[in-house]
Amino acid sequence: MDSSKYTVEYIPEFADCDKKYDIKPQVLLAWCAELAGNHLRSRNITREQMWKDGQVFLLTRAAVHFEKVPQYNNKLYMTTWEGGTKGSQFTRKFVVKDTDENILCDVDTMWALVNPHSHKICRPSEYIYEQIPCEDEVEAKVIKFKAEAPEKIKDYTFVYSDIDANSHVNNGVYLRLMSDIIPQKLTDKHLKTLRINFIHECRQGETVGLYLEINDKICTAEGRFPDGKVSFEAQAEFV
């Protein structure tokens, strides 16, 4: 049995979708994280064991390319595989297909291996479990991007409901914050591409300024701490 890939069936529920019945970006990202963990678990690499061994994966970058945004109540199949390592990080790919095997979207991600006890980043050579890399590529690509002169929209202070079991702000919250500051004339459209970089984690009670730059149908957002340090940067292109 090929264990290099792992596939799960999903059906987007009503609460998973926006007013267009499109799946919310933060839900898709949560599914990616869940699927990655379950793929490892299927090979007896559990989160609990990794924590005990002082090694956990933290998502640092993600890019999504949409052919068609998955929608409410439409059954889909999501497949993931390890892409190997790139520099100091691990790569993982995802593809989402409908019941006719048409690709709806795909995802390129990068992950840091971190010791949860010391919070130090581990080198890929320190990874103690087996990797089964697959060379299959996806359309989405993690690339560098930067807002040149973003405008501050508002401040946001993170609250209890933003925090996950790792005791810091859940990754999906940052995508929600970006969606909330993009003008309705764009959010009424469908997503074509989405990218996000997680730079410095946030915790409950911390405040970031939310900045936005719009260039035609491309929106680039940043979250900045009061000292100017960037917490996250995200970019969405609509069609």
UniProtKB/TrEMBL annotation:
<feature type="domain" description="Acyl-ACP thioesterase N-terminal hotdog">
    <location>
        <begin position="5"/>
        <end position="130"/>
    </location>
</feature>
<keyword id="KW-0444">Lipid biosynthesis</keyword>
<dbReference type="InterPro" id="IPR029069">
    <property type="entry name" value="HotDog_dom_sf"/>
</dbReference>
<comment type="similarity">
    <text>Belongs to the acyl-ACP thioesterase family.</text>
</comment>
<dbReference type="Pfam" id="PF20791">
    <property type="entry name" value="Acyl-ACP_TE_C"/>
</dbReference>
<keyword id="KW-0809">Transit peptide</keyword>
<protein>
    <submittedName>
        <fullName>Acyl-ACP thioesterase</fullName>
    </submittedName>
</protein>
<dbReference type="InterPro" id="IPR049427">
    <property type="entry name" value="Acyl-ACP_TE_C"/>
</dbReference>
<keyword id="KW-0378">Hydrolase</keyword>
<dbReference type="InterPro" id="IPR045023">
    <property type="entry name" value="FATA/B"/>
</dbReference>
<dbReference type="InterPro" id="IPR002864">
    <property type="entry name" value="Acyl-ACP_thioesterase_NHD"/>
</dbReference>
<keyword id="KW-0275">Fatty acid biosynthesis</keyword>
<keyword id="KW-0443">Lipid metabolism</keyword>
<keyword id="KW-0276">Fatty acid metabolism</keyword>
<dbReference type="GO" id="GO:0016297">
    <property type="term" value="F:fatty acyl-[ACP] hydrolase activity"/>
</dbReference>
<dbReference type="Pfam" id="PF01643">
    <property type="entry name" value="Acyl-ACP_TE"/>
</dbReference>
<dbReference type="GO" id="GO:0000036">
    <property type="term" value="F:acyl carrier activity"/>
</dbReference>
<feature type="domain" description="Acyl-ACP thioesterase-like C-terminal">
    <location>
        <begin position="149"/>
        <end position="213"/>
    </location>
</feature>
